[in-house]
Amino acid sequence: MNPPEYTPERRPIASREKEFSKRLASMLAAAGVSPNAISTAGMIAGLAGGAAFALTPHWPIPCFIAAAVLVQLRLLANMLDGMVAVSTGKASPVGELFNEVPDRISDSAFLIGAGYALGSDPLAGFLATIAALLTAYIRAEGKVAGAPQDFSGPMAKPQRMFTLTVASIYAAAAPASWQIPWGGGTMACALWLIAGGAFLTFLRRLVRISRHLKSNP
What we know:
It is built from seven helices and no strands. With about 220 residues, it is mostly helical. It has a single domain (about 15-215), classed as Four Helix Bundle (Hemerythrin (Met), subunit A), CATH 1.20.120. The protein is globular.
């Protein structure tokens, strides 16, 4: 008897249902690209994006634009690795682990790098990183304890990356007189928002998971 097919709990992403996403996933699967390779590509985008942020004091406009593009490429890879894994029947607990670890590395690289960006604050970057890791930690702990994976916000991964993308584009496009002065600068303001929102997300997930476990002993 064949073992039952493994079906991972996936983050709800509306763009996963777009025709473009389905075609791209089909092309990658047909080309023999493995889900783990796509996860690794997303991690490389995260590391490169963190470096781009850190280089913005020297080359602001091109590096902020590059960082924004790399944020979106990381999200694209995060979506496609799961789609390819499911479509090719290669979804597995090991593959899920391989997806999660690069995700944490990418989050840390982006947020720490953004802390060293032009108009930013390293403390904000490190606090945003810690808060982001806490959201992933409580989600994983909830799953281990028997609760469904909780992808709720207000500052889950898609919202964190959206905030970074918008801040990057604004920092690249807006003149110096239009840059946000609060918190140390435009990127610092974005990181403080991410840090506070991610910590609220951690608390919200903690409460939701606790309620589920209490009602389903």
